[in-house]
């Protein structure tokens, strides 16, 4: 079994170090292939996603991705490597679960899954500007919408509540978001056991804050899925806890939802739970090792209920100390 590890920039490096240690403890035979990508790589080599990294990800079929910094302005030649990687590996569905964790502060009881389309929408990066007028292309295809919808319905059918809500803004964007909605409804016809409804993305944001328990699976185009999953993460205790797994044609990318967090990078205080829970998703969904995934998730839960946590959750553990505590808990 092989894992391509792309630590990336900022806290991506700190949290993947912990996740790799824990995965290696759970899977002693696991071969780790470390590769680079991201802003630092771009500054040094002129490319954000080197060929060798992509080739290794393809060969390993499993990727652990930390985080990369992307500049919030146009830099010639730079393209976000994670967006490129998801597209190159045809990881067309991004699974972003939010489940309550035992935290000190009172939080709503949450168990929802956002399934985000991962290859198109505004993320195709087709922008133009003459300095006065700027335009971006939002591309939605029936094919990509259907294939992500199938993943979402498949997962909804296996969950207790079997509910799926399609997120869109078809009142403003009837052609693009309307196509996404209609393709999703068509895919859903094969899953009569799943109760389907739909919400405008703004209403979904409101409901998520007011009554998040009402949601089971949310299916969303790329951009709305990104925004709503940060919202869900915020309700649940922050970005330090939010995992994701991108899946598609046999390759899986585990990646925390958070970015490179330049504000806390290099201090050794980043919360590694999001990366660890992403690793657990890799164990469960990609490697079909649910017992190991359960062991990892329950070790994390036990530590959090005992008040062992990083600073974002009000604790005092460093990134590495939390990692050591997980290893100790697993060894019990
Ligand atoms: P990027 O452009 O790479 O996404 P960002 O500035 O948007 O960087 P994020 O990583 O998205 O930063 O984080 C947003 C906020 O959440 C930051 O204040 C960051 O410190 C905090 N945060 C994110 N991830 C973690 C984590 N794993 N542990 C603790 N705090 C985190
Ligand atoms: Mg961010």
TrEMBL record:
<comment type="similarity">
    <text>Belongs to the isocitrate and isopropylmalate dehydrogenases family.</text>
</comment>
<dbReference type="InterPro" id="IPR019818">
    <property type="entry name" value="IsoCit/isopropylmalate_DH_CS"/>
</dbReference>
<dbReference type="GO" id="GO:0006102">
    <property type="term" value="P:isocitrate metabolic process"/>
</dbReference>
<protein>
    <submittedName>
        <fullName>NAD-dependent isocitrate dehydrogenase</fullName>
    </submittedName>
</protein>
<dbReference type="GO" id="GO:0006099">
    <property type="term" value="P:tricarboxylic acid cycle"/>
</dbReference>
<feature type="domain" description="Isopropylmalate dehydrogenase-like">
    <location>
        <begin position="2"/>
        <end position="326"/>
    </location>
</feature>
<dbReference type="Pfam" id="PF00180">
    <property type="entry name" value="Iso_dh"/>
</dbReference>
<dbReference type="GO" id="GO:0051287">
    <property type="term" value="F:NAD binding"/>
</dbReference>
<dbReference type="InterPro" id="IPR024084">
    <property type="entry name" value="IsoPropMal-DH-like_dom"/>
</dbReference>
<keyword id="KW-0560">Oxidoreductase</keyword>
<dbReference type="GO" id="GO:0000287">
    <property type="term" value="F:magnesium ion binding"/>
</dbReference>
<dbReference type="GO" id="GO:0004449">
    <property type="term" value="F:isocitrate dehydrogenase (NAD+) activity"/>
</dbReference>
């Amino acid at each position: 079994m092989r894992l391509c590890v792309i630590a990336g920039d900022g806290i991506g490096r700190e949290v993947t170090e912990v996740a790799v240690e824990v995965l290696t403890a759970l899977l002693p035979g696991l071969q780790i292939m470390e590769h680079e990508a991201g802003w630092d790589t771009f500054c040094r080599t002129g490319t954000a996603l080197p060929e060798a990294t992509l080739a290794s990800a393809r060969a390993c079929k499993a990727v652990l991705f930390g985080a990369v910094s992307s500049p919030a302005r146009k830099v010639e030649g730079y393209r976000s490597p994670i967006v490129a990687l998801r597209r190159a590996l045809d990881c067309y569905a991004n699974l972003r679960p939010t489940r309550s964790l035992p935290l000190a502060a009172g939080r709503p009881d949450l168990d929802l899954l956002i399934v985000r389309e991962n290859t198109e929408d505004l993320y195709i990066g087709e922008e133009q500007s003459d300095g006065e007028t700027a335009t971006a292309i939002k591309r939605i295809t029936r094919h990509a919408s259907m294939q992500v919808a199938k993943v979402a319905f498949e997962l909804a059918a296996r969950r207790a509540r079997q509910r799926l809500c399609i997120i869109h803004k078809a009142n403003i964007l009837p052609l693009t978001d309307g196509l996404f909605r209609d393709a999703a409804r068509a895919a859903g016809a094969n899953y009569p056991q799943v109760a389907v409804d739909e919400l405008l993305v703004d209403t979904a944001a409101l409901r998520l804050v007011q009554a998040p328990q009402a949601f089971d699976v949310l299916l969303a185009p790329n951009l709305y899925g990104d925004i709503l999953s940060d919202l869900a993460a915020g309700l649940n205790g922050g970005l330090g806890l939010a995992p994701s797994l991108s899946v598609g044609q046999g390759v899986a990318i585990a990646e925390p939802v958070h970015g490179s967090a330049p504000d806390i990078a290099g201090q050794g205080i980043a919360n590694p739970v999001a990366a660890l829970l992403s690793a657990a998703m890799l164990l469960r969904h990609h490697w079909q090792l649910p017992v190991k995934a359960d062991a990892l998730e329950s070790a994390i839960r036990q530590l959090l209920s005992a008040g062992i946590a990083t600073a974002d959750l009000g604790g005092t553990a460093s990134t590495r100390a939390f990692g050591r505590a997980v290893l100790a808990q697993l060894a019990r």
